[in-house]
Amino acid sequence: MKVLTQAQLNEWLNHLAERFTLAAPVNVQGKLLYRQVDDSSGIAWGFERTDMSPKTWTFPATEPILIIEQGAETRLDDAPAPAPTVVFGVRPCDARGALAIDALFLDKEPSDGQYARHREATTLIGLACPQMWDSCFCTVVGGAPNSTEGLDLLLTEVDGSDGAAYAVQIISEKGEKLAAGMPGEEKGVSLPKPRLAKGLPTLPASQEWKAQFNETFWKQVTERCLGCRACTFVCPTCRCFDVRDEVVSRQPGRTVLQRLRAWDACTSAPYRRIAGGHNPRPTQHSRLRNRFYCKFMYYPDDFGPLGCVGCGRCIEACPVNIDILEVIAGVEQLAASGSS
Amino acid sequence: MTTRTQSPKISVNSVPNPYLPLPMRIERIHVETDDEMLKTFDLAFAREEDAAGFDFRPGQFCEISVFGKGEAPFGIASSPTETGPLRFTVNKVGVVTTALHNMNEGELVGLRGPLGNGYPLEQFEGHNVVIVGGGFAFTTLRSLTHYLLDPGNRSRFGEIIIIYGARRPGLLLYKEDLAAWERREDISVHLTIDREAPGWTKHVGFVPDVVERVAPSAESTYAVIVGPPVMIRFTLPKLRALGFPPEQVFSSLERRMKCGIGKCGRCNIGPYYVCKDGPVFSLAQLESLPQEY
After folding, report:
1. If 0-12 CB within 10 Å is exposed, 13-18 middle and 19+ buried, where does residue A174 land?
2. Which of A71, A200, A302, B82 could form a disulfide with A254 if both were Cys (CB 3.0 to 4.6 A apart)?
3. Cβ separation of B263 and A150 shorter than 8 Å?
4. Do B255 and A275 touch (CB under 8 A)?
5. What string of H, E and C letters represents the secondary structure of B56-78?
6. Shared domain check, B151 and B96
7. pLDDT per residue over A41-68, tens digit each?
8. How much is the pTM?
């Protein structure tokens, strides 16, 4: 396995930044976000979990999906193609999040062209977690701190002779291409075992969620939900979006418009309201319940992967301490008491 | 070295943009109701080649774009058996629909579709069809009725009954079609309004009561019911009392669909997406779902 010293990794990343848009965790006013960096010096080394997932690079919070030019004639065009991008420092849970979105946007006909171009243009370099941090529960939903799923390369920090060193696992063809010409030396190393969290609940199966749909439990859990949507915006798998038109430029005889998609959230009230004012999901508890059911029943039943990768960001982000792990544990208990 | 995975899993070269609309020209605008809140738009393909590839079935819908204002879903009111433009009837309720109402004949809009599943016509074959509609929701029911009555199709279906209600006569859609159907022998049309009105000689009363009065037989019959939620809620028990099992009752749901292709998430009812798995569902399907419709 190839092993890079920190200096070699920095050098390689600097080289990548010349050829690609390089994104990596950056400390932006105390928040860890995946932002473009000019070279490795801008990277927030030693980070744990970032505040936002790298989903922003393959499914941006707002992006055009159509360009409309109105003049003597009307022209309808695709949005500009995304630039070739390398995202460095992707945590294994977030890479699984990308696979979850792929299952819907790519594998289900019709494929989403704009998302497909992002995925094609983006290479994900993972950085294995040495341990599960506070609120982490990737192991509950089928992941692991050192999972390679969805990544193109995975780097694992190992003890170097002086300072940090990184062992490189090549996962995909894309990763192999990127790693060609990478510095470092081939060595026999054994990868450290990540430290796992203990005392986590077991995820109930889809049909057990179905059986608990009308339980008063949901009212108790979700009573304090403010509908602020923070949980969905930090989520690496939430993919609901709204569509709206915006003027780019207006000149005499020529108007350029763009149709944007922007992240949306099933937990907000206007999300479901239809023309005329009828709202089929009229209560906050029914809206938040839908989010949990989407993640653990509807999404896996419809598309395969769970709609949750256990990153724990929603637990950290919720202003009223709604805890998805407590929800999982609660359904587990309901299922157990129902069957006994 | 071990085998490499492909990422992402499918080849995405030249995946077409499913959000790219077809340009359509507004051929005709017709004010449908006397409150002028509903207008019917006949849309013709701006590029001839688009028309050839556009096959749809009654009950499907399209996303119509007013460029700069956005997109909204509308059921197709014309039938594939009719030649000529596509027909949509639009209630002025929001940004896109208001912008549409302000447009003129000859102007350009965008169209994506056909979307959704449509009515299960194959299943209806050889059976009677009872069509129950309320208010401005008659759009795809017009498409369905034209389809069933088409000379090439009529013999494949049994008796056809329409029960259609509006608050007052001026709010009924497609008055010319209704008058033509009333003159025909091979369809029975029951129109109703909420309260007595001068010159009105047909049914008076809410749709559920007229369904009870007309009492269509459930024997070898499918019922299609589309209308405001409250009409559907009170009509379903009447149909049940007439012996209609939930497998023989179909409804088309309205949702705030954005993408129309099952991606954006907005229209789910449990594991179903109204835009892709619907908008037409059997009552049996709906009864198995969370009561969020």
Report:
1. buried
2. A71
3. no
4. no
5. CCCCCEEEEEECCCEEEEEECCC
6. no
7. 999 999 999 999 999 999 999 999 999 9
8. 0.91
